[in-house]
Structure to design on (247 residues):
């Protein structure tokens, strides 16, 4: 495939919420955007139709970020179909709240598997197919900087781990000119935060100095910027976008 072919951005966890906004934004930026989902085939197919309706190209791939083979297969499908990989965004994440005396082992394992192990394995699978000078973006959380409420210890652990992972990988990948950065959203209007219920969402919104949640498009805009050539000197950074919550 010639170097003139359309650039390809693979988004892990792209079917809903922040991931879906990133898929749409990168497609608007001119990328072909394969993305993974785990359960919501309906949402994934709707997003593909939306992107194609707007003149872009996207592909939905079922792949569980908790499964190493699924992650490798998603990368394989991307290369088979599009022949190149320029940008990788690892957005898939799960949040299970609970105080330490009430956290089931399954919730602990699921969050570690998807939010930490899955991020590392996705990047490990993608790297051999990326050209020098590529871009990797993880989606962490501002909770790595400040929790603010009880019951989030496991989720906070996973997002702090991603911030550390990105620093280490930035050094590993610098010789190849591949940058890796971690976008840390604050409360953002998606299904994940909707799970807190109205009372929980009001509580969290009131903790934000700007007194509102982010829209997923606002997070996608920062990812779009990091993917550009002009952002090539940013690496190993955790960029918090949270309306001042963590200050
Ligand atoms: N919303 C917030 O306030 C907020 C704040 C800070 C950070 N974040 C982080 O931002 C990211 C996106 O959050 P969101 O609010 O957009 O969440 P969301 O609305 O719950 O959407 C989660 C997305 O991740 C996918 N996903 C979940 N588990 C997966 C797995 N095992 N394998 C593959 N894909 C999986 C889902 O796929 P399906 O559609 O198939 O389920 C969906 O596309 C997460 O990493 C989250 O921790 C969110």
């Amino acid at each position: 495939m010639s170097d003139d072919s359309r650039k390809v951005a693979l988004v892990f966890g792209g079917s809903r919420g922040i991931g879906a906004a990133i898929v749409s934004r990168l497609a608007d930026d001119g990328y072909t955007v394969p993305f993974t989902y785990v359960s919501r085939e309906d949402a994934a197919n709707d997003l593909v139709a939306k992107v194609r309706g707007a003149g872009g190209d996207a592909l939905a791939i079922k792949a569980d970020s908790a499964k190493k083979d699924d992650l490798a297969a998603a990368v394989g499908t991307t290369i088979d179909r599009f022949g190149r990989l320029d940008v990788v965004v690892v957005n898939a994440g799960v949040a299970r709240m609970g105080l330490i005396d009430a956290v089931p082992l399954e919730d602990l394992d699921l969050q570690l598997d998807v939010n930490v192990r899955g991020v590392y394995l996705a990047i490990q699978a993608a790297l051999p197919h990326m050209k020098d000078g590529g871009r990797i973006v993880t989606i962490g959380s501002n909770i790595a900087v400040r929790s603010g409420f009880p019951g989030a210890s496991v989720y906070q652990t996973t997002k702090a781990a991603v911030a550390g992972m990105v620093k280490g990988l930035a050094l590993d990948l610098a010789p190849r000119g591949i940058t890796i950065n971690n976008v840390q959203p604050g409360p953002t209007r998606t299904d994940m935060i909707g799970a807190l219920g109205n009372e929980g969402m009001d509580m969290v919104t009131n903790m934000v100095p700007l007194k509102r949640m982010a829209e997923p498009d606002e997070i996608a805009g920062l990812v779009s910027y990091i993917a550009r050539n002009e952002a090539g000197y940013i690496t190993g950074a955790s960029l918090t976008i949270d309306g001042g919550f963590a200050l």
Remarks:
- The mean pLDDT is 97.
